[in-house]
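Hi team,

As requested, here is the filled-out complex form for the iron/sulfur cluster run. I kept the field names the same as last time so the parser does not choke. Let me know if anything looks off before we queue the next batch.

— J.
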Amino acid sequence: MNAEPIRELAPDPVTSLYVHVPFCAQKCGYCAFYSEASTGEMMSRYVTALIREMEMVASRLRPQTVFFGGGTPTLLTLRHWEQIFAAMDRLGLLGAREWTVECNPATLSLDKARLLRAGGVNRVSMGVQSFNAALLDRLGRVHSREMAFKSFDILRQAGFDNLNLDLMFAIPGQTLDVWRETLAEATALGSEHLSSYEVIYEEDTPLYAQLKAGRFAVDEDLACAMYEELVERATEAGFRQYEIANFARGAGRAPNVDRSCQHNVNYWRGGSFYGLGPSATSYVGGARTKHWSNTARYCEEIERGQRAIESSEELSPLARAGETAAFGLRMVEGWPFDQFLQVTGHDLRKEWAADMDQLERQGWGRALPDRFQLTRQGLRFADAAAQLFLR
Ligand SMILES: C[S@@+](CC[C@H](N)C(=O)[O-])C[C@H]1O[C@@H](n2cnc3c(N)ncnc32)[C@H](O)[C@@H]1O
Ligand code: SF4
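And here is what came back:
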């Protein structure tokens, strides 16, 4: 009997690409992202390895969103960027509708900004953290407040109409008045997007060591007041809060001007993504893989023709759904029940009914006819709320 050959169904291509650039001019005192100061030689070796890794995954990728994060991607030279653009063109990886590059204000020139824009980058996320000179110093930032203003102008001059500013609050030594001044200066700049995180004390950072040594204390009430101030001032300035720490111009009813970060929305909604570069994580076909956080090792493995994978895990469908629930609840609109069912195959109202009840009783959650969402207070404690959903 002539059996029909079994044809393997090609999975849908992944539409989201993250690239980790593991270099910084100098390490900030609070930061635990994998990055280090480096030589030009290592940067060139990394770019060659990155391009080889792009070649390995290109056939399974059709990027709609691209995000070069770090580290400091703008530390790469013009020549490096030209190599990356040429490779992405050759591999069919250009044409994303949103392409973000993270930038440190000390590492930008007009030439570089123009090159990025011409290469297809259409969104830049600039790490400002604070407009207060003493706090910038305290955080170990390489740039001055003036450089942040100047880089913003350079980006506008180069034609970028979608800019994000990163700010941090509850920095040791930061008063509510100093935070208000930074918020006023940031909103006056007129960026399309604002991200603002409370300082996280990451182990193995100088700031964490100072906290443990009793050099300062954490003031929870002040941090809460700063978060309230952030939400109020950003809203007043015309931003729409769409996630705990993220604010965008444009609204749901006018999607053509919606400036929320589509790349991050894909993470929070449990979408797949490829992550390239040292320390990057990928989530493809329900499996999560993580690369070595070591640039030399990353390059060696890629040079041997394999991706530099340190670990991989495949979660059960229910565990995956629980994680997806937890991530998506970071978004202000919460999880529409239908959408959640469609994405995960599980019904929030069945599997997590008791957990949602508990959050409602605590005043942290709210069940509407079509969705479940966290309240403003719940969003402030979203990490604790999220724990309830993990299976
Ligand atoms: C990779 S950095 C941004 C680009 C560039 N490296 C820079 O710092 O200018 C990503 C952002 O994460 C935030 N961040 C990093 N470490 C943090 C921490 N320990 N607590 C809170 N926010 C942090 C900062 O706002 C930072 O701008
Ligand atoms: S915050 Fe940005 S510039 Fe500072 S060390 Fe981390 S990645 Fe580098």
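Two things worth flagging: Residues 24, 27-28, 31, 33, 35, 70-72, 104, 127 surround iron/sulfur cluster (ligand 2) (CB under 6 Å). The chain is about 40% helix and 20% strand.

Thanks,
J.
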